[in-house]
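Anyone opening a protein record will find just a pair of labelled lines. With that in mind, the following record should read easily:
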Amino acid sequence: MEARLDFFGNAPAGKVLRHLNSAGKAASDPGLPVVTQGLVKIRAGQINGCGSCTDMHTKDASVAGGTPLRPDPVATWREATAFTDAERAALQLAEQGTRIAESAGGVTDDAWADASQHYDEDQLAALMSLIAVINAYNRINVINRQPADGCQPGQFG
């Protein structure tokens, strides 16, 4: 599969990416654990069918966590034993925040309450922002048919 256009080499697209990157950086600053950030990015990429993001963030999360991390357990996080309660709460928020169109109510009060037990207000703001930003990246990559398996860990900062 080839990308439909060179999104990284296109001037208007580059402007959009710089703004998305800035938003992603802002969402990463308030102390949300790096591994949790990676899990959320992987799960959103899986739900949205973004092979490029799933590949990239799996590699990045493996480096951040110090151990190899496969995306398979993230897709089955409810049954997997590898995740903390806080990570499960973040994954639930990521799923519901990504699948807004599938539910009239959006993110449930229960999912928010669960996340609120594990994250402070700044971390919740970061988590919400991260979910929004990764969904934007997913959509750009899926629309563009951005190939997977082409990145190195940490390639995009």
